[in-house]
Structure formats: C-alpha cells, structure tokens
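Board notes (copied after class):
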Amino acid sequence: MSWLNDLYLTYEACKSDPLLLPVAHLTQNAQLEVVLDEEGHFSRASRVEKEDAVTVIPVTEDSGSRSGKAVFPHPLCDKLEYVAGDYGDFVAGSNADKFVRYIEQLGAWAESEHGLPQIRSVYEYLRERRLMGDLQEAGFFTLEDGKLLAEKQQGVALENWFVRFAVEIQGRPESRLYRDRQVFESYVKYYLSRQGSRELCYVCGGTVPCSEKHPAKIRNTADKAKLISANDASGVLTFKGRFYDSGQVASVSYEISQKAHSALRWLIARQASLKMGEQVFVVWSIENPDLPNPFFSSDWEEEPEIFTDAAYSDWIRKAVWGARQAPKDRDGVMVMGVEAATTGRLSVPFYQKYGAKQYIQNVARWKTETCWLNWSNEAQAFVPWSPSLIEIVKLVAGEKNAKLNKSMRERMVPCVVEGRRLPYDIVLSALGQAVNPWRYEKYGEWNRAVAIACALLRKWQIERGDSKEEQGMGLHAESTDRSYIFGQLLATAEMLERSALAMGSGGNKEGFRNTAAEKYFVRFQRYPVETWNTIRKQLQPYVMKLGNAGKRFYINRIDELTDRLDLERKDKLEPTFLQGYSSQLIEYRSSSRKQGETGDRGQARNDDTAPEMTSF
C-alpha cells in the first residue's frame, strides 16, 4: 500500500493545482453544452468542439465505475438519455428509469445544506422535462415521419451525447459549472457527508468510510482498467477460494483512494516518463513533482565551445532534478510503472522509492556513461548525447514484438534509476543491429543506431573497468586495439569515397549512396583482412577523382593505419571496431567544418594533377 500512501501525500501537497481533479470527480468528453439563466430557463445550447470536450464532472462511487446496462446516473452532467426527461417522447424504447434516478439524485444535492443556486437552477429546469423539445427548437435535430433525425457529434450517436451545463448568474464571473471550484467543493462536502459504514483503512490505519469501487481512466479518458477491483461474484478468479469478499483482503478509505488515483492520473497526463504500448512509467517527488523525464534523450543544445565532461555532467544533474535547489537528505523520488494486464485490470509491475540524491546520482551516471558524440542541429556540431530508453528498446527489441519490448523495458529501467549493471546481451543485441546498414532505409537512421550501440558499449566498458582510453567518446588516435584501428580504416575508406562522390555526379544531391565500406560492413567484421583488400581495390577510381591534397591525405592516412596492423591475423573483429569507425568519421567531419571547407576532405584543390597512386 506504500504507493497509495505516496500518491495520497502527493495529492495533498499539490491540491492547489487546478488540473488536479477534486475528490469524487472524473473527466468525460462532452458533445453538448446547455446554458441556463439564473431562474432555470433555457437560454441556448451549443455543440462542444473536440479540443474543448474534456469536462470535469462529479461522480458517485457507482457511476464512476458503471458499465454495460447498469443504471447509475452521474450527479450533474450525464448522457442525454439521463438528463432529458422528455427523451422517451422522441426516442422509442428508451429507459425512463435513467431520468427518474438522475433527477432524484440531483434534487437531493440541490436541496441539501451544501446545495448552490446554480445547481438548483439546473434541477428546476430539468424537472420540467423539456430539454429535448428545446433542443429541437434550437435546430439540433428534426422529426421526419415521426422519426428523430440527428447528426452524430464527434462520432457519437444521439443517445450517447454527453451534456454539460452552464448557468449565467449576474455577478458571478464563472458560469460554466464544470470549471467552477465552488461547485466542486459543494459536491465534495455533500457526497462525503453521505458516506455510511466505516472500516479499517489499510493505508491510513484509521476507521473511516471505505470504498469498494475504485476509479478507472488512469492512463487516459478511455482507459477502463482499474488498479484495485474485486468484481468476481463467484470468487473463483478474484479470491481463489481464500476469502468470501473483498473486505477480507484489504479495505481502502474512499477519500484516500480518490485522491491517490487522481494524483496518478494527473502525473501521467502531465509528465509520463515512458509510454510504450500498454505500459506507462511515471517519476515524481512529493517535494518536486515536476521531475523531468529520466529516460529522456539528452541532446546538448548549448554552444559547442562551452561543454566539457564536467559541464555536461552538471547539465545532466540539473536536467534530472530541474532548475530547483539541490534535494535535501529527506527528499524522495518515486518511480512507478503501470500496465494493463487485461482490459479491466491495471497492474503495477514496477514501484520503487529512492532517496532523491541517490536517484539523481544514478540517472546522471547513466546519462554520462551511456554517452556518445552525435550531430546537433541546434549547436551545428557533434555534441555529447545519451539515447533515450525508448530509442534503445526500439533498436534492441524492434517494434513488432510487444512481449520482448515489455521485457526489455523492465530490464532497462533499474539500470537507469537504480544504477544496476547493463546486461551484456543488450549491448550485443544493439551491436548486432548497428553493424548491418542494410536494415535501415535512411543513412541518418543507421548513423543513429551506430551511435546508440557505441554509447551502450562505452557504458559496459566503464562498468567492466576498461582503461580510460577505451571509455572516452573522442577519437583515440594512438590506440593499439586491432579492432579499433580496423574501424578507423573502414571510416577512412568511406570518407574517401564520399569525398569523391560529392565532387562528381555520383550519388544523390548530398553525395550519399552506398559506399564500398557500407556494402561490406557485415563481412568486414568477420573477415577484416580479406574484406579490406576487396574494398581497397574498389577505391581506386574514387582516388583518381580527388585533388592532390585529398589523395595525399587519404593515402597517407590509410598507409599509417595499415602499418599499425598485423595483416597476417585472420580472426574477426571485436565490438570496439564500431567505436573506432564512428569516432573516426566524427573526427573527419568535425575537422572539415572547423576548416571551413565546403564538403569533405579532398574537395579542396580538386584541379591539381593527380600523381601516380602506387599505394593502391
């Protein structure tokens, strides 16, 4: 029950927020708004635009969870068949009991000590049973051969039109009852005063009015799944023969249940950290409910000259906690995941509470260690970047296998928020996806996959305690790692060919077509020496296109790298070859931009006479 208590405390700390639903209230999409005057006379009606359809309505414990053919009216706003006493005069076969029960319930509220003039105005008008006639006169539908004709509203048939009310009273600035805080408070006091029997609440520990029916619509207004439910009368499924009724399992205060569910609904709507399929993760702190998403993609948007490793780490810490002051020792952070196990059941597969300082350290460490250089359009440079959890899951598990996606998310979340080690099979899966450029339709998508794989590999290297040289994001020009050097060699071949393509008519407008390095990427990892010989032969025509400066640069660079390799070794390359490839490409492109060239290396001095290329 700790999550219920934490959500309840969050509600109490943030209840001044106007977007946080009051107790005994839910939201519903409305299709029709009826406006009355102070005397309870019909003034006008209007269709509700879709963008303004979400309406806060008071509910009872029964109406808030009604389904099927059950007749449980809402206290004020409801479907047309409930609120229109003359609905049966226009539509044959309607259930007259709906209006009878609705108007009795509304009257009890209006005439109570907590009633308001605007509620009594609605009651006095509706009890006259003339709403349908007024709507017909207003042109909302017509009769033809005794048959009612009405257009659908937002795809909703007439019998399901949801009606909300406004009452224009002189001197009152707010006529819309669904936005009037006084109306909300009136109903809360009225409804809580009618609560009956008391039981032990397993959350607060007191003997208070408890709830048997708990709210739905947690993840969105159409969500039917509930976190707490016990509606199996046979007991076969719900109680497994161990109990006779839900009260023997646990009981929760009505007020705590309402506030806790409202807080969770509010948190998910405003700051859900991770939404994929039926699963939603939300992160918050009672002291600082506006916590940023810990699973975000940390793109650096400042000027590239100002960031350093320390500056990036500090930026991450601020991004995790927000711009507020540093957390205190007693501050906590909650991470909660909910998932629809069935249409009507919402499970909590993940819930943990952390000290805020430890949480920030864990997330900041994840972001700084799963980091790689990536191109930023804002900074117009390669900047530190950590992929989001969604990007990682999509790369590793794909998007078609829902069960694999779910399993991957549940394994990854503790790595981010708890500081657990990154499983090596996830790293290998990411590498397996990134080394095959043919999986991707666009060159940019493949580059993104390579960056994600390199970031995960770097995280694994740091956790394993590899040398600092292997842990960095930049190019290690003096690396002795055979696989890393082969990656540099492959990147050099790619840049050589792209430079030549950009000078001629080959490829598309950007000069990007499949290079020899891309064509043999998978084979290169398995058979580096043989594949390199094949690639080198295919580079000869492109070398001839380059100017003297480009030829000298690339040939010298290739000779330098091959001299550091033992070409007699035939074993396949280790994963670090991908880091060597990526880092070398980034270095080439960054250098070209710093030098102010119009394209890649080799475009300058393209009118020079080409010397004989003995290296090829």
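Comment from the instructor: The first strand starts at residue 25 and ends at 29. DSSP finds 21 helices and 17 strands in the chain.
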